[in-house]
């Protein structure tokens, strides 16, 4: 992880093209650190959203807590299926979507996922999530369309351990130091991952 982190930061420092791009995920020279599809190919089935840089998500329960995702099908033919679990006002809910890996302009890896969630309102059914930084075993930092295209999610397969300092540093660079932390692993494990029935989100 440290080598990957240092080479990522070095790429930021030596790049002469940074002024051309508003966000790190738009920079083709960072492609080696943004291959989000590689994690889906590994089938790391569960990822937890430890925090984000905005308080409300109108399509996922506003300020709902305990957000995690489960990959429920293998990544085949460029696609996989994901189920999100979260808690809204004490009620467990789920949302299912299909995810398709794509490469954005200039990138030579699949650095973004096109999301299609049929049960959401029409304006929110199709969303593109772009990878800022990917280390499948530590963290995935994702740009979302929220807050005028400046939203960020910090996802990890290991929410119970200490947060990786390298991932945290990159998040601060890309997304600001503001963090809306709402994931308590012990409580969320009980609320989200038990066999108790969940309410499916209807559009």
- CATH class membership: Mainly Beta
Structural class: alpha+beta
The percentage helix is 10-25%
- Helices, by number, come to 5
The counted number of beta strands is: 10
Separation of termini? 40 Å
Q: CATH homologous superfamily - what is it?
A: Calycin beta-barrel core domain
Largest sheet: 8 strands, antiparallel, barrel
Unreliable segments of 5+ consecutive residues: none
How many domains? 1
Major β-sheet strand ordering: 1-2-3-4-5-6-7-8
What characteristic shape results from the CA principal axes?
globular
Give me the strand/helix succession.
HHEEEEEEEHEHEHE
Overall average residue pLDDT: 83
CATH topology: Lipocalin
Please state the second-level CATH architecture: Beta Barrel
GO molecular function: amine binding
Protein name: Salivary lipocalin
Organism: Ornithodoros erraticus
GO biological process, one term: symbiont-mediated perturbation of host defenses
Task: List descriptors.
10 strands, 5 helices, 33% strand, Lipocalin, eight-stranded antiparallel beta barrel, 203 residues, alpha+beta
Question: What does this protein look like?
Answer:
With 203 residues, the protein is of the alpha+beta class. It has one domain: Lipocalin (Beta Barrel), CATH 2.40.128.20. The protein has 5 helices and 10 strands; from the N terminus they run H-H-E-E-E-E-E-E-E-H-E-H-E-H-E. It has helices spanning 2-14, 37-42, 146-149, 165-175, 185-192, and strands spanning 46-52, 65-71, 79-88, 91-102, 112-116, 126-135, 139-144, 151-156, 180-181, 199-200. Strands 1-2-3-4-5-6-7-8 form an 8-stranded antiparallel β-barrel. The longest helix has 13 residues, at 2-14. The protein starts with a helix and ends with a strand. 33% of the residues are buried. The mean pLDDT is 83.
